[in-house]
Amino acid sequence: MQSDRFSLRVPQVLRFLVVLLFVAAPAFAHPVPFTYLDLRLGTGAIEGSLVAHMYDLGHDLKVDPADRLLDSGVAATYAAAIANLFAGRLTVSADGRELVPQWSQLEVLADRQSLRMHVRYALDSMPGVVGVTASLFPYDPYHQTFLNLYEGASLTQAILDSGRNRFEYYAGTRQGAFAVARSFVPLGVRHILAGADHLVFLAGLLLLGAGGRKLLALVAAFAAVQTVTLTLASFGIIIPATRLTDPAIALSIVYLGADNLLMRGGRAGKDVRVWIAGAFGGIHGFGVAGVLREMDLPVRALGWSLVSFTAGAAAAQLAGGVVIAWIVGGLRSQSEALGRRVALAGSVVVIVAGTFWFVQRVFFPTGT
Fold first, then answer.
1. Do 58 and 186 fall within a single domain?
2. Between 237 and which of 55, 80, 99, 232 could a Cys-Cys bridge form, CB atoms 3.0 to 4.6 Å apart?
3. What is residue 239's three-state secondary structure?
4. What's the mean per-residue pLDDT of the chain?
């Protein structure tokens, strides 16, 4: 009886499969969700080309089926529409000024199922920095634009997508060096002044007082060692994990507060704050190098960025140190006892803050 039921079901299953095969429509997946942008920086102009897949263009231009665009005659009728489409989604700037695109020469690349358009951006002078912003096919959240930017024989590459749609290129010229300095000196200043751990460390260095020569020595030690470790990490020679450098910065703050208490208590020996400043600068250099690596800077721009960032950080430390030293010196001049109480309370605050950051960065690295 069971076998009879099975034999009755078999024809039904076969009929269902036959109907499914005839009714089902073919499904086409997007095989290549990529766009390729080539730009060449030259004297008087930026020349380039943009290669886009027919599926992306067909979707946004409402061309169905999309492979109609592989017909040269059909593609020519859409040339103006394609140029208008890209004009609103691709922006190239020189030293912050948006350039006007001149689109021309539409080509069909049948073997790549793509279309290529050439573009030209006129330049008044050689720029220091070229910015490229691309969000070419927003309907596809996974779409990527592969950027190749040429200057002479050098090539710089980047990938633009929904998570990062802008790239800045610093030219290998005097204008490029100035552009790097204009960007990275303020970045170094902000990095010091906006970081609570940097300010606490700086205050801790000066709680016991410091004259002008001592302040310069502290800042110089920080900047010198930071430059060494920042260079090593930025060029990929030594790259410690962030999970190690961040807690190490916090521990150096704890050590500084403890050393202040020992010095205040009359510990025999030399003042080692210069060595502590150098150690903090070294760890800090490893920690901040990741920011520069993520920017995909050319090697020549990387060197200038290191110098500029360090100069900005040193200037911020020196300016902040002058203010803190002036406040601490004023309190100590009013009363020696008041100065000692400030040094005691301040050192305890430094230790507590460093301990808090250490626990946070070891056990709650995401800030939760």
1. no
2. 232
3. coil
4. 83
Across the strands, what pairs with 116?
Answer: 51, 107
Q: Do residue 166 and residue 186 come from a single domain? A: no
* Helix residue ranges, H only, 149-298: 174-193, 196-206, 212-234, 242-264, 273-293
Find the domain containing 239 and state its range.
175-363
What would the pLDDT profile of 258-298 be if each residue is shown by its tens digit?
988 887 654 445 778 888 889 888 888 887 776 666 666 66
The answer to whether 219 and 321 are in contact (CB under 8 A) is yes
List pLDDT tens digits, range 235-261: 788 888 878 888 988 998 999 899 888
- DSSP type of residue 104: E
Cβ neighbours for 31, distance < 8 A, ≥ 6 positions apart: 53, 55, 113
Mark whether 184 and 155 lie in a shared domain.
no
352: tokens are: 């507590």
Burial of 285 (0-12, 13-18, 19+ CB in 10 A): buried
| pTM for this model (two decimals) | 0.65
Strands 45-53 and 101-109: unpaired
If asked whether residues 140 and 276 sit together in one domain, one would say no
Among residues 40, 46, 49, the alpha carbon closest in space to that of 105 is found at 49
| Residue 171 DSSP SS3 | coil
ω before 65 within 30° of 0 (cis)? yes
181 and 166 inside one domain:
no
Q: Which of 106, 139, 171 is the last residue of a domain?
A: 171
